[in-house]
Amino acid sequence: VLDLADLPKTTDEMKHIVSEAFDFLSGTHIEDLIIAKLKEEFLNPDLHIEISSILSDLIQFMTDLCTKWRNIMTAIENDDLDGIRVELESLDLNLRKSVINSWDNEYGSPLHFAAYRRNYQITKFLLENGANPNSRIDFLTRKKMPFDANVNKIIKRGAITPMSIAAAKGDLPIIKLLHEKGGCINAKTFLIQYTPLDVSKAAGHSDVIEYLSKNGAERG
Predict the structure, then answer these.
(1) DSSP letter at 30?
(2) How far is Cα 56 from Cα 75, in angstroms, rounded to an integer?
(3) Which residues form the ANK repeats (predicted)?
(4) Rounded to whole angstroms, what are the CA distances from 144 to 22, 79, 92, 129?
């Protein structure tokens, strides 16, 4: 998250920064007339104030979205479906999808974490509100979603979908739900390209193995 404390405080500081930038550009192929016009505009104190205001609003907006995302993850951790509803109610559909499909290396996305928590109702709610059943996360720490050694060597390969998380947990109802909502049963990890079927076999979940196999799942 950007910190407003790092932004130039005065117009003079902005002038100095922009002047240095345009002094550098003066040695390039940009026409002198264009440089002069741009320099005049960027050194306008009113423009500096306007830009600072826009940046401030943007940073606050992004901070609010990040806070909502973190609150959603906390609600999932507490199996609090109503808490998730409250966080999403104030967002329009596009922003709702953006927040729901965001992720980090600790929790994954809300859908990944809900699958890990084996909460069917929350998983269903997220899918109904725009969660992507094929969303991928590049890497997971084991802090919030630990697995045994056999599964972890697959999960850490990256490009993990909620289907693989559900397969690792042996949660057949969530696997069926994800599949019904368009989740790919053959989504592969990076490099070695493990699939949910590989994950379920590593975890030893026979009912999941049977379902995936009957529905065309392949090993990586």
Answers:
(1) S
(2) 29
(3) 106-138, 158-190
(4) 48, 14, 29, 24
Report which secondary-structure segment, H or E, holds 2: none
* Distance (Å) of CA 158 to CA 9, 174, 206: 42, 21, 24
What is the CB neighbour count within 10 angstroms for residue 177?
19
Token pair listed for 45: 């104190």
Instruction: Give the chain's mean pLDDT.
Output: 80
pLDDT (0 to 100) of residue 2: 31
pLDDT at 39: 60
Q: pLDDT tens across 117-168, in order?
A: 999 999 999 999 999 999 988 766 666 777 777 777 766 666 789 999 999 9
How far, in Å, CA of 202 to CA of 187, rounded?
16
Q: How far apart are CA 117 and CA 100, in angstroms?
A: 16
Cβ distance 202 to 154 under 8 Å?
yes
Nearest to 113 by CA among 155, 73, 61, 70: 73
What residue has token string 């965001």?
102
**Structure token pair of residue 137:** 């996360």
